[in-house]
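Structure ticket #2291
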Amino acid sequence: MSNNKKTFFSWLRNNKKNKINNNNNKKKTSGFLNKLKKNLLKTRDIFTNRILSIFKNTKVNDSLFEKLEETLLMSDVGLETTKNIINNLIKSNNINKYDNKKIYLYLKKELVNILKKVEKPSEKLLNNKTFIILVVGVNGVGKTSTIGKIAYKYKKKGKSVMLVAADIFRAGAVDQLKKIGNSISVPVISDSKKKDSSSIIFDAINIAKSKKLDVLIIDTAGRLHNKKNLMNELKKNNNVIKKLNNGIKHEVLLVIDSCSGQNSVAQTNLFYKEIDVSGLVVTKLDGTAKGGIIFSISDKLNIPIRYISFGKSINDLKTFNAKKFVNALLDNK
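Resolution: structure written out below.
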């Protein structure tokens, strides 16, 4: 390895050590980062390894920026977002004449800035009323399992939680939610006699309010974003909540599958236009090389990312943190 390559990686390791040593919660932070890095392995294979390989060369030139652009695109950061990042890097370099270390840090800063504007934890929306979460999304994104993870997260915080089985279409959906609820000791409201999801939601909200519960999480049927009749049903669900909630803000949480890449952007945009999505959960980050989709969605749509999910464990859901996510991607170990 050349001296230039050794210099960059030595600096990268020392820079990382200094930051960790200055963190009062270094064990907790390091543990989370290590788990996140492990679960982002497929994205890191393209994103991290290639970017660090580019920065082995201390010479900052057009080739460096071209390779960075190619790598961002391969990680599904998106054409428009990628061009904005690269243009900002080039502009800053032309003004400041950066070396590769500073370009690397500036890249991290650019990526964090994109994600920071959507880093808005759902927990901050809690008040002294029942907080209602309507969970929506297309088929197969992991809505029901995500609901279990969110419910468990609130329960660990000492909140009273109830789930609503309002998916009246998918065979086994009610049983799946009941199984999840039973495993974390959270009650599930369902009604097999009713064929209208809005009626089930109506009854569940009244029960939750009478019991003065902290959180009510509603599971809905998966639906394609371009099916008008199914989207109209979601609108009806949403309107029932608005009517019973007396103007109090509730959460419409869209679950998106990171494996879908740029198609997730189109899905998110259409759901947002139809039912005013207020937050996102990005799932299956452990199974894709397209983790860069988070940057594209954040940059284009500016919808808060509440959680990211990776793995099947009940604990494999984390409140989204922009800096930790970027550090997990751009860490050399």
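Closing remark: The mean pLDDT is 86.
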